[in-house]
Amino acid sequence: MTAVNNEALLSTEGTLILCAYILTLIGIGWLGKKAQKEKSLSDFYLAGRGMGFFVLFLTLYATQYSGNTLVGFAGRAYREGYQALVLITFLSAAVGAFAIYGPRLYRLSKKHSFITPSDYIEHRFEHKNLTYLSATLCVVALANYILTNLKAIGFIVVAVTGGAIPFIYGVIALSLVMVIYETLGGMRSVAWTDALQGTILIVGIITIFISINIEYGGLDFIYDQIHKLDQDKLTAPTMYEKLSWFSTVCLGFFGISLYPHAVQRIYSANKLSTLKRSLQIMAFMPLITVLFMIVVGLTALALVPGLDRQASEGATLIVLQDLAGRGAIGTGMMVLFLSATIAAIMSTVDSALLSMSSIITKDFYTRLSPGKTQEELTKVGKIISWGIMAIAVYFAIVLPQTIWRLLEIKLELLIQISPAIFIGLYNNKVKGKSIFYGMLVGTVFSLIVMIANKQGFSIPAKPLGIHAGVWGLIINCAVIYCCEKVCGQKNK
User: Is residue 339 part of a domain?
Assistant: First the structure.
């Protein structure tokens, strides 16, 4: 049995190599700045809508698989055992949703020059309050997304240095790197760094999976140890847990697929065939990425059982520590693993930061200060990015929530936007007023349940095993239906 320790995961030389890799990202950001063709919002936030297949696929991959995947998913597998396999369908559902709405939204974005998700909603429904509400939900979701990944990156820095660099300083330092290269070149810089980071991520995850199988004997060792130490992690799910699984998949389909930065990557494709090919390959990635990280979490459970919820967030690092202690991996492989983890986190944060900046600039600032030039708006967007990052760093340091719970909260709010996208794209008759009231009521309900639960009221975060946000989505759709019926009766 191993134990959690405070020894540095990397030697001084390994740490220097990792730092050099991180600093190269600023160089890529500078190249992105040099490649800018014009000082416009479209060029800065969408790379001039010219992203090819290779870069588009890798930026989609690197954006979707984040610190939540490498830290949060492994932590959940540690806490839940084999029931965490539901996370595979969680990410697969998101890709399925992309395939359903992505091509149609792409065609509209090319025709009408959309930059943010709210641009489509404004175009389709012509309802100002609906546009503001959807943009607000996007901002809240992105802020939470940045927050979860900054917390993850803090854990990594502490582990890499053995605590020599505290959590706070690690978060601040890497946040500075990300905001520098993001504001240098916008989407080009972000997509190009994502291409590098996505490649490292794929190689790193496959390598750690192979190392686990070679060193421990694969799933047989994991199963035997968990069976011996914590049999509850092997039990079949109860009805409540099955409903929770279903709810989680709903979060993936209606929530992850509508990440604003993912929608903007749909806008950024140079042509429709590029988008379709990228999504086809993305369909296979949950089996490689999510499944392998579940195995990492289960391995940590087999090695160090009995960790509390907060400590279980370090499941990935526990396995890396143990492999290094056994001599199974050297400095080079450890640098690769940790680079993969940091790459996953940074590629997500930079994308979310860019998207959040675009929404605040395009959907709020331009309406409050009309008449600004494209160049002026681009400068404002860069300033906003720095402000966002400063606020996110503060909350990453002070908030105690686990990464997985923060992920759930974000998605429970974001899915309230899904009727505007899915119904709007496939039903030309539904009115903006109906969508607005549905989104408003669904959001308020979700918030009431989550806040009441947090304040200690006897209201579960998942009534009947279903997330408050999914209940909110059901109510959201019911309100839309009722409003449309009332409007139909009035018209008659």
Answer: yes
* 381/394 Cα distance (integer angstroms): 20
The H or E element containing residue 160 is helix 128-161
Does 124 reside within a domain?
yes
CB 163 within 8 A of CB 6: yes
Model-level pTM?
0.83
CA-to-CA distance for 139 and 133, rounded, in angstroms?
10
**Do 435 and 302 have their domain in common?**
no
Say if CB 160 and CB 8 are below 8 A apart.
Answer: yes
The pair of structure tokens assigned to 490 is: 């009035």
Residue 328 near residue 196, CB atoms below 8 Å: no
| Token pair listed for 320 | 């890396």
Q: How far apart are CA 144 and CA 68, in angstroms?
A: 12
Do 61 and 207 reside in the same domain of the chain? yes
Same domain flag for 179 and 279? yes
**pLDDT given at position 2:** 42
Q: Are residues 357 and 456 in the same domain?
A: no
Contact, 135 vs 364, CB < 8 A? yes
CB 141 within 8 A of CB 410: yes
**Nearest to 363, CA basis, from 128, 179, 107, 105:** 128
Q: What is the mean pLDDT of each run of 10 residues along the chain (492 residues)?
A: 56 80 84 78 86 90 75 84 84 91 94 92 94 93 84 80 84 89 86 84 85 84 80 75 86 89 92 93 89 90 84 82 76 75 78 90 88 87 92 82 65 92 92 95 93 83 88 96 81 58
Could you tell me the CA-to-CA distances from 247 to 59, 77, 211 in Å, in that order? 27, 17, 33
**CATH code for position 233:** 1.20.1730.10
Domain holding 481, by residue range, is 429-492
CA distance 25 to 480: 46
Q: How many domains does the chain have?
A: 2
